[in-house]
Amino acid sequence: MNNDNGILTLEKDIVTPSTMVLAPYHHEWYQATIIDRYAGEIYSKERTSKIIETSCLHWSSSPEGIRRAMKFQLDYHKKSPLAIQPELNIFAFPTMSPEQFGCFWIFPWHVWKKGGDKYGSYIIFLNGARMDFPVSYYVLNKQYQRTCEAFFKYKKSIAEQ
Question: Which InterPro entries match (predicted)?
Answer without folding.
Answer: ComK (IPR010461)
